[in-house]
Amino acid sequence: MYSHSPTVFRTYRFDAFEVDTRSGELRQNGARIPLQDVPFRLLAALLERPGDVCSRDELRNEIWPAEVHLDFEGALATAARKVRQALGDSSHAPRFIETLPGRGFRFIGEVNVVPEEQGLPQTVHMVPSARRRFPVWTTAALLAGLAVTVLVVWNVRGRMAGAAKSAPIRSIAVLPLENLSANPDQEYFADGMTDAVTTELGRISGFDKVIAWQSMKGYKKTLKPLAAIARELDVDALVQGSVQREGTQIRIATKLFRTRQEKQLWAWSYDRDAREVLSLQREVAEVIAREVHRTVAASQANPGANQPTVNPEAYDLYLRGKNYYEFGSGKTKYYNSIQLLERSIALAPEFFQPYTVLARAHLELYWGRFDRHVSHREAALAAAQKALHLQPRSAEAHWVMGRVHQYGYLDQSRALKAFETARSLDPNDPNVHLGIGAAKRRLGMIHEAVPFLERAVSLNPKSGVCLFTLGETYSLMRKFDDGDRLLQQSLLFAPSNLYYPRRAWFALLAGRPDLAREILAEARELGQSGSPMVYYSYELDLWSGDFGKALESLSSVTEEMLNVSQGGDGRQIPKDLLMANALFLAGSNAEARFRYQQACRTLEEKIRIEPSEDHDLYFGPLGIAYAGLKRKQEALEAGRKAISLCPVSRDALRNESHRRDMARIYVMVGEPDEALKELDYLLSIPSEISTYALMNDPTWAPLKTSKGLQDLVRKYGH
After folding, report:
1. CB 319 within 8 A of CB 189
2. Does residue 16 contact residue 4 with C-beta atoms inside 8 Å?
């Protein structure tokens, strides 16, 4: 799509704006306008062909080659909206960017192109004019062990020594390795090698920060120069390279760039037999580390060192299974992943890495309620145990075991212990820090969780889940402005049908109903749907007093239970219960009673057939349904049962939602003093209750004139 020479950058000028592809900046009348990477690439792509229609497929291939697992249409619409906001443009009356429904986008403004001077490349594309093929290796070369070939680009060793001493490289990122294999379908192999080299670098002592592979995927085929990428990631150095697989041979070429001087320091090339892929990944990382004077300790050797060779077919099946797990869609991706991983294990039962992904796939089927059967939980535990048996010093294996404890068995203490062990083995793995933060949240230590979640964002700054989890945590602490900033950022990388409504919910708790409505409207415009969207739209309508609209939003729901996922607790609420609450508030008592009865039947059946570890999720809503039917004693018993089944020590987030249910039950059965005690407790801890909620959620309307509620509002402020 683009015609740029790899060593030529351009400045595009239109109206009062300039787009500088060398610096990666958008300016208006000389003043820099912040614009993130994906929107910037979209704008640059449109400016490359002013007046031409850039199809959605073309934009997808150029901007999201490694992120097709995301909601592409939503991500593209979000990027276009961000560009229009930066330019002060409108989709309804465009001056610059025109949308052609079903086709793509077109830049309709007048553009002047100013070529810049040629010089040393700041972004080095490693795509040759024709696909290289391996030279014919002789038998003598093979017998020599396919030794590492050093490619001396210039007399770098002397130059590098002085530079390294004057400015130590403490942070680094690996750009996506280019796939130079003859088969473009080998992209997953190049991605897997990038991920592995990044992981190996993270295990090496001396680096303060190694950016996670997940945050680097978006830089495939980027127009941004290396200096701009380094600024975005806040790193001292970048590694760039390529990988080529032909038959039983692998070649990796790597280059190291110091971003401050914008200089290439050295380049290496490695030729290996495919069976040596594990030791190759370790060697690449160790050579990079030594060249920047980081210490490679024997205790930090790659677990692959104990298994220097692996069946190439088994490794390929592992990468394909992992690719399905990460980039597939729906629950079928987990089943496809499991099938490929089991084939890999059958070929190489001592290769530990397939077991880690196998455990994750089974766990997702169980925890994500795609297939809530204990056999998946047991299979996840068995796979994690096998991985640890094979590689007891693998950070990845300990992290996976922590997730099994955390989400499979709700054993947060054992999970935290496993995560801490993983951190001692790999201090630069963002998933480990995210796991520690998540475990501390669920143990009720939310303030202690924050530094670990912030570290996870630092290591993986373009991860939707890291940004969302930290943003949600700030919001639970009622730091709503900080939380909203992070929640908004998370939508750039993961525009999901959960993240949008959760951001809207916290805006509502913060007393910003207009922002909440705007967020939900934007989500609908992008085609977002599903239970969380319905539920939080319903809540907004209830708070606004529009009970008819709240009921209307539920009428389109065909599911018996709505998954509202408050705080990631897997919370499910019967549609009938939500309708009953709205009908009761609207004064339709007879119809509300009927719906409460239906909700009781549904929840009682769930408790009868669902695993016992889920029963706490149903007793709270059941107590509310009983209260609606004036069955006071049963309502109180059900609410207290939910709390006793899931105390803070088991899962503080789920316990918090049960305490909110209990407060609601007390209000409904005429126990205002007890309700106020629960609300006082909830306001004293990070929770999904705010003083604005007390004054505006109709649930608490019976308390509104009480002195106790006014005292709570004064005590905790707005």
Report:
1. yes
2. no
Pairwise CA distance, residues 433 & 411, whole Å: 17
Residue 670: alpha-carbon gap to chain centroid = 43
- Residue-wise pLDDT for 470-511, tens only, equals 999 999 999 999 999 999 999 988 888 889 999 999 999 999
Mean pLDDT, all residues of the chain: 85
CA atoms 64, 65, 66, 68: torsion sign: positive
Is 424 found in the same domain as 372?
Answer: yes
Look at residues 613, 656, 655, 651 and name the one whose alpha carbon lies nearest to residue 411.
Answer: 651
CA distance 671 to 185: 65
- Judge contact between 407 and 434, C-beta under 8 A: no
The reported pLDDT for the residue numbered 611 is 82
> Of 213-217, 325-329, 386-390, 680-684, which gets the smallest average pLDDT?
325-329
Q: List, as one string, the DSSP characters of 379-443.
A: HHHHHHHHHHHH-TT-HHHHHHHHHIIIIIS--HHHHHHHHHHHHHH-TT-HHHHHHHHHHHHHT
d(CA 607, CA 597): 16
Q: What is the CATH number of the domain that holds 86?
A: 1.10.10.10
Residue 710's pLDDT is 93
| In-domain check, residue 499 | no
Q: What's residue 557's pLDDT? A: 87
Spacing of C-alpha 463 from chain mean position? 4
Taking CA atoms, 217 is separated from 37, 38, 175, 192, 434, in Å, by 12, 11, 8, 11, 19
β-pairing, 53-55 vs 104-107, is antiparallel
| Residues of the domain holding 631 | 560-716
Which comes out higher in pLDDT, residue 563 or 675? 675
Same domain, 74 and 145: no
C-alpha neighbours within 13 Å on the C-beta side of residue 63: 27
Return d(Cα 455, Cα 433) in angstroms, integer: 7
CA 488 to each of CA 464, 469, 532: distance values in angstroms, whole numbers, following the listed order: 10, 12, 17
Number of C-alpha atoms within 13 angstroms, CB side, residue 280? 26
Which pLDDT belongs to residue 718? Answer: 56
The CATH number that applies at residue 656 is 1.25.40.10
Give yes or no for a contact between 59 and 105, defined as CB atoms under 8 angstroms apart. Answer: yes
**Contact between residue 669 and residue 678 where contact means Cβ atoms under 8 Å apart:** no
User: Residue 308: what pLDDT?
Assistant: 57
Lowest mean pLDDT among 132-141, 230-239, 329-338, 480-489: 132-141
Q: Are residues 603 and 666 in the same domain?
A: yes
| More confident position, 87 or 270 | 87
Q: Phi/psi of residue 147, each to 5°?
A: -60, 160
Give pLDDT tens digits for 347-375.
999 999 999 999 999 999 998 888 889 99
pTM (2 decimals)? 0.77
